[in-house]
Amino acid sequence: MASQKNGTLYVSVTNDLTRRSYEHREGLRKGFTKKYGIHQLVHFEAFGSIELAIRREKRLKEWQRQWKIDLVEKHNPHWNDL
């Protein structure tokens, strides 16, 4: 997810993407995403197990910012809200 205002990026894992996106978009979840106005779903990946999803999340959180930007732009060059 990303903030259109300040370009902040957020990486997380969920078992219900629709619900989680809605919560962030509407500011229903307290914490980082609400504080930084992160409302846009700009990239997502689906996995067959929670273990694989968590492993990928941890890897992405270690990535440099530019690598994350490149990943988003590869699949969503206009940063559309998915």
Summary keywords:
82 residues; mainly alpha; 4 helices; 45% helix
Would you kindly provide a written description of the structure presented here, covering whatever features stand out?
It is a single chain. The chain has 82 residues and is mostly helical. It is 45% helix and 0% strand. The protein contains 4 helices and no strands. The longest helix has 13 residues, at 50-62. The termini are close together. The relative contact order is 0.21.
Concise structural overview:
The protein contains four helices and no strands.
Indicate the structural class.
mainly alpha
Low-confidence segments, ≥5 residues, pLDDT <50? none
User: In what range is the share of β-strand residues?
Assistant: under 5%
Number of helices: 4
**Proportion in helices:** 40-55%
Largest sheet composition: none
Average of pLDDT:
94
Map the helices and strands.
Elements: H1 17-25, H2 32-35, H3 50-62, H4 65-75
